[in-house]
Write a structure and sequence with these properties.
The chain is mostly helical and 915 residues long. Among the domains are: 136 residues, Rossmann fold (3-Layer(aba) Sandwich); 81 residues, no CATH class; 52 residues, no CATH class; 59 residues; 68 residues; 85 residues, Tetratricopeptide repeat domain (Serine Threonine Protein Phosphatase 5, Tetratricopeptide repeat), CATH 1.25.40. 68% of the residues lie in helices and 3% in strands. The protein has a five-stranded parallel sheet. The chain is elongated and about 110 Å long. The protein starts with 30 loop residues before the first helix and ends with a helix.
């Protein structure tokens, strides 16, 4: 599915009119991008590179063609370089003063590094501009920096830009009079469609239809979608409304209808499931338009050798698609209906064929076509398995493949890609190329972290860092980027084994190294800098340095936002990930500040999931973070809706990968279970929390350093829910186990002190539930003392916990008939709760009601009934309003407050009886 050159003329049906080379529609919009590209071309640098990225159909190729047309008028030599001709294209332009080389589908070109090496081998006379076009950058783009010698002596500047789906609103070239209408703005969709329909109708000799336009809600229209909508309306005669989301499919259906007679004449069977469609899908997937390549496609379609006539071969060649997105849609639809065809296209693949299948599947995985089944992961898995990987000479090919296939290529492909990296590391160890070995070991280290073997990962990552350090001493500029990448990966490994101080040390080293990158290395420095800041923020959070953590995350977010402007496919997921890290603000008592970040992360990931389903897990995680923040703000109904969706997604993911999704499923179960528990739905809560606890016990047995904290969390949550059901003996056992775990964790991680204090306070309440008041006092007092120390350092984060612990301490003293001693902690708890209510009424009003009611009881116990009366009435008033909204949750609490009020009123009316 490689892009055709501008002079090639494949395609005989109406769909060929959508090809950018045909220029049926006049070039318009993209004024800012065109000005930026022309300025880049005119810069004084002898050699300059630019990556132009964007999803299929946004107009990348059309923009490059228009740039070439304008530069030719001013004396430039412009060459659209065919795949496989990268070095040869250079030899043809030697001596030209001003040269633009355009490399479409740059991410799939094995000859790219050789081309860069050739440019770096000798000074270029004049100006050479290389415009690389791809849907995204990714590893293949970043790793050109150290795999090519182009940057060895005089590094050329490298820049990136991305095309948004819709052009900017300022027209670059206005519509011509031939359209017969005036258009003020290129985002005037109805006028654009009418103008495009007029053009397509004239080309096809058909009447201009009245377009009935019905876009899907929230659809970000690409130029190709609009053009396909207009063409579909012309082909349908305007009889049916056209949705741009399905317009390409409508055009494809008309294309298929037009094949019937010509395919039959060529000896092929037309129609769905026929040999014509099957052969065309196979030829498109295998990407070989030679006679021999097309005969292979015919064979895959089940056409006998004696029927593989020249006419059949010519028919295939004439009907190969000129528009990649249309080709991908066709292949996806045909293969989704036929396992036999998938097998035929992927059996006994030679290395070159396997690489072509990988190229096609990788492009499809970035921009999923609408088909009954996603076949990209299957294709990647089969193609990777077909690559030879036994001989040392196989390593170069495997490395090229690994650089072009991210782990997120699709859930079915991930295990295969991980096995590929294992094999690459085995072969690299046997070689003598330090750079190749370092790259392979760093990749494998990250795979081992994902596979749950972080200890082995750390050993490999340290070895990789050592190799890159040695290479950097010989050529600092060239090897600084991969050293930073390996250090970042080592930090990930340290974090996975709980060595957060070590992780922070290497992350801070990366930040310092990024400050020494040359100006032209921004595309590489910025990515590693942002990654180091993001990970440092997480390490700082683990170490309890939340103020510094927030600053690091904000700095990371700023860089990733800038990178996403140049390559959204690559960096928007990182933007969402950093936004999710602001959940720490919720933990710090600032949920109102976390909410916008959490909501934006969910919005980004919803959009990503539409194109690439492998982001479903990240969406589920972001929904969980958003739900937790909404709950912290007291917005329980909204939180429930979000957390139910998150759990549903995690269960769906678990059906595909049960082992790999256990931690995330347990988190989703725990979050929703805790919400149900606090809103009075204990039965539902018990079911979810037991399931979460069962999973986390297994995880903690397997990896205690990573999962003991989460096990303690589930134990404590379930204990609280048992207590709400009156099962106090069970609740005490669970909280005692949680305290024991958290004491061990707090001995080497100050961040665990908060959770230990919470469990101690809970344990005191559980003892009191059983009437064991003397035992309750010790853990409750310990919790208060611990939280006072924490509040001194971070009052916003720990005030709520201290207020709860003080209230519990007062209640325990009251149970011990030490009412006068109970008043001081109770008054302090009420004062703190009143301040918290001013800041966040929804979240803290229920706790204020409890604190006020308890203080009223204590005051009454020491005979201060007049003072207690006002507080008792306040508690009833608060709980009456709460019960009106959530009767199941607050009805019993309201009755308790009414009972306290009645007792105090009776004591005031008859003091003697009260005594």
């Amino acid at each position: 599915m490689s892009r055709l050159g501008p002079d090639e003329t494949r395609g005989t049906g109406p769909a060929a009119l959508l090809a950018p080379e045909r220029a049926v529609m006049p070039f318009m919009g993209r004024g800012r991008e065109m000005a930026e590209l022309r300025s880049w071309a005119r810069s004084r640098d002898p050699v300059a590179l630019r990556l132009l990225s964007g999803l299929g159909g946004v107009g990348k190729t059309r923009l490059a063609l228009e740039l070439g047309r304008r530069l030719r008028r001013t004396g430039w030599t412009v060459v659209h370089v065919p795949v496989g001709q990268e070095v040869a294209a250079l030899s043809r332009v030697v001596g030209a003063r001003r040269v633009l080389l355009v490399l479409d589908t740059a991410g799939c070109r094995p000859g790219l590094t050789a081309m860069f090496d050739t440019i770096g081998a000798a000074p270029w006379r004049g100006r050479l501009r290389i415009l690389c076009i791809a849907r995204t950058g990714g590893q293949w783009w970043r790793r050109e920096r150290w795999t090519s010698s182009l940057w060895a002596e005089h590094p050329p500047p490298v820049t990136q830009m991305a095309l948004d789906p819709a052009p900017d609103p300022a027209p670059d070239v206005a519509f011509g009079s031939a359209l017969g209408l005036a258009v003020e703005r290129p985002d005037d969709v109805p006028a654009l469609l009418d103008g495009a329909a007029a053009r397509f109708a004239r080309k096809l000799g058909r009447p201009v239809p009245r377009i009935r336009f019905e876009p899907s809600p929230g659809l970000r229209l690409r130029a190709l979608d609009l053009h396909a909508t207009a063409l579909a309306a012309v082909l349908d005669g305007g009889r049916e409304p056209v949705d741009p989301a399905t317009a390409l499919g409508v055009v494809l259906d008309h294309e298929r209808d037009g094949w019937v007679h010509s395919a039959t004449a060529a000896g092929l069977v037309a129609g769905a499931g026929g040999t014509a469609e099957a052969a065309l899908a196979a030829a498109t997937l295998l990407g070989d338009s030679s006679d021999d390549g097309l005969r292979v496609a015919l064979r895959c379609a089940g056409v006998d050798a004696d029927r593989q006539t020249p006419e059949a071969v010519d028919w295939l060649r004439a009907h190969l698609f000129r528009v990649p997105r249309l080709a991908e849609l066709f292949v996806a639809q045909v293969l989704a209906e036929s396992d036999e065809l998938i097998d035929a296209c992927t059996s006994d693949l030679e290395q070159g064929q396997a690489c072509k299948v990988l190229e096609a599947a990788t492009r499809m995985s970035l921009d999923r076509p609408a088909a009954k089944r996603d076949v990209t992961g299957e294709l990647i898995a089969v193609a990777v398995s077909a690559l030879p990987d036994q001989r040392p000479e196989d390593l170069a090919c495997l490395m090229r493949v690994a650089r072009r296939l991210p782990r997120s290529a699709g859930p079915l492909a991930v295990p295969v890609l991980d096995r590929l990296r294992h094999r690459i590391a085995d072969l690299a160890r046997a070689g003598d190329d330090d750079a190749v070995r370092a790259e392979a070991l760093a990749d494998l280290g990250l795979v081992l972290v994902a596979e749950g073997d972080p200890d082995a990962a750390v050993a490999l990552l340290r070895e990789a860092v050592g190799l890159w350090r040695r290479l950097a001493r010989t050529d600092e500029d060239r090897y600084r980027p991969p050293l930073c990448s390996a250090l970042n990966s080592l930090g990930t490994g340290y974090w996975a084994v709980g060595r957060h101080d070590d992780a922070l040390a290497v992350q801070e080293e990366v930040v310092a190294l990024c400050g020494g990158f040359p100006a032209g290395d921004a595309p590489w420095a910025d990515a590693e800098h942002a990654r180091a800041l993001q990970n440092a923020g997480m390490s700082l959070t683990e170490l309890g340095r939340t103020g510094e953590s927030e600053a690091a995350q904000r700095a990371s977010l700023d860089i990733y936002r800038r990178l996403a402007e140049g390559d959204p496919v690559q960096y928007e997921p990182h933007v969402a990930a950093v936004l999710g890290n602001f959940e720490a603000l919720t933990e710090s008592g600032r949920p109102e500040e976390a909410l916008p970040a959490n909501a934006e992360a969910v919005a980004i990931r919803r959009r990503l999931v539409e194109a690439r389903p492998e982001h479903l897990g990240e969406l589920a995680w972001s929904l969980g973070q958003l739900g937790t923040t909404l709950e912290a703000l007291g917005r329980s109904e909204e939180a429930e809706s979000v957390l139910v969706e998150a759990l549903g997604l995690q269960r769906r993911l678990a059906t595909v990968n049960e082992q790999g999704t256990r931690p995330e499923l347990a988190s989703a179960l725990s979050a929703l279970g805790a919400l149900y528990s606090t809103t009075g739905r204990a039965d539902e809560s018990l079911r979810l929390e037991r399931e979460a606890l069962k999973i986390r016990r297994v995880l903690a047995d397997e990896h205690p350093d990573r999962y003991l904290h989460y096990l303690a969390h589930s134990l404590s949550n379930l204990g609280v829910t048992y207590a709400r059901r009156g099962r106090y003996d069970d609740a005490v056992l669970l909280e005692e186990e949680a305290v024991a775990i958290r004491r061990g964790l707090a001995s080497h991680n100050v961040r665990s002190l908060k959770f230990l204090a919470q469990s101690l306070s809970n344990l005191g309440v559980r003892y009191a539930d059983l009437g064991r008041f003397e035992e309750a006092l010790r853990p409750t007092q310990e919790a208060v003392d611990m939280l006072r120390g924490l509040v001194r350092d971070q009052p916003e984060k720990y005030r709520g916990g201290l207020a709860e612990a003080l209230a519990n301490l007062g209640a325990t003293m009251l149970d011990l008939d030490r009412a006068n001693e109970a008043l001081r902690p109770m008054r302090e708890a009420v004062a703190m709760r009143r301040q918290l209510v001013l800041e966040n009424p929804d979240k803290h009003r229920p706790e204020l009601a409890l604190a006020v009611s308890n203080l009223a009881s204590a005051l009454s116990a020491v005979g201060k009934n007049s003072e207690a009366l006002g507080l008792a009435r306040e508690a009833v008033d608060i709980r009456r309003r709460l019960a009106a909204d959530l009767p199941e949750r607050y009805r019993s609490e309201l009755e308790r407050s009414r009972a306290v009020l009645a007792r105090i009123e009776a004591a005031i009316q008859d003091p003697a009886a009260a005594r």
